[in-house]
Amino acid sequence: MRSHAKLHLALTAAAFSIFTKTVNAFHTPVFSPRTSYHVPKTTHHKSSYLDSLSDFHVSQPPPSWSPPPIPTISSSDSTSKNDSCNSDKNLCHHPTFHHAPIDFFALDLLSPPCPRKNPDVGTPCDSYRELCDLDSSSAGSWYCSSGGWPSPNPRSTTEVFYVLEGHGRLTDEDGMGHYFGPGDTVILPKGWSGRWDVLADIRKVWFVHEHDEVKRQNDDPIRVKVVPYHELTAMEMQFSYGTYKIATRGNPEIFSRIICDVGPTKAGSWICTPGGLKIENLNMHHGFHILEGVMYITDERSEMGQSRRCVAGDLVLLPRGWSGYLDVVETVRKLWTTLDA
Fold it and tell me: What pLDDT, on a 0 to 100 scale, did the predictor assign at position 341?
């Protein structure tokens, strides 16, 4: 009898160990840079933004490369006629693009906390800080303490946000709930209504897009969408878009997938191996939050070639019409969102 009990305990412990490792694999945002990947054969889900980043030469073998030397850049704290930096040393508004490190959204730099107007659970207070507002697109950060409130009025915008800290639940108007936590990307479509519950104090970075009404195919409730971290960063979850067609250095390869397509608003993941990329005359606003890696952004019209070093946690918004260069030093993984013209 004792031998059977010991065997049962051993099997239970082994099963629990396997379960724990599986859960950790999906929730721990740690990835090792690699130079080659297995990409499943699949049909490309095209978009105007993704198409602009690829000539679909997927048959070309992965490049052999070594990390290049760090390019020389101007100090982010300097100010000149070509680099109109804000007096805040953590933020720099270049002539045509906006960038801020995650420290720019530290709690003590957000607006003073204000109580929510209509809570029915707890006494939630929220605060925020905006990075920029470009007519129909804006970006920033938001904090809210625990509590809950109804949100009965349909949203007038589409929001894409990334959860830095905390846990919450968004409930659609028919009662379907969507839980989210650190590392999750959440999409709140225009027209959504329902309920907010902040279960543990939340910090997030967000992109908001204003756009016309989107024609609906049926009368089903407009639903929240939650995308976990691994779906944005795991290579096997992406589509290959081949080698970048206007490479200025090396042979950078693009991998991506679309997670949201609501009218003119799109969002997705983007992975790029080291190399130089040239972007010409964007036909849409393009915002992104860097999840992993290191890259430099340089404005084409910058006479002195000023650049910004961008790392994990940074928030960037490139406006419609922007042209410039991206230099990927370490493989970059990012969450992106666009608003088509």
Answer: 52
Task: State the Cα–Cα distance between residues 306 and 73, nearest whole angstrom.
Answer: 6
The residue behind tokens 């007038």 is 156
Q: Residue 89 CB: number of other CB atoms within 10 A?
A: 12
Nearest to 207, CA basis, from 109, 111, 268, 140: 140
Instruction: Give pLDDT tens digits for 229-268.
Output: 999 999 999 999 999 888 999 999 999 999 998 888 899 9
Q: Are strands 114-115 and 225-227 parallel, antiparallel or unpaired?
A: unpaired
Tell me how far apart the alpha carbons of residues 288 and 160 are, in angstroms, rounded to a whole number: 10
Angle at 13 between CA 7 and CA 18, to 5 degrees: 125
Helices of type H across the chain: 2-27, 48-51, 229-233
DSSP for 309-320?
A: EEETT-EEEEPT
Helix (H) or strand (E) holding 30: none
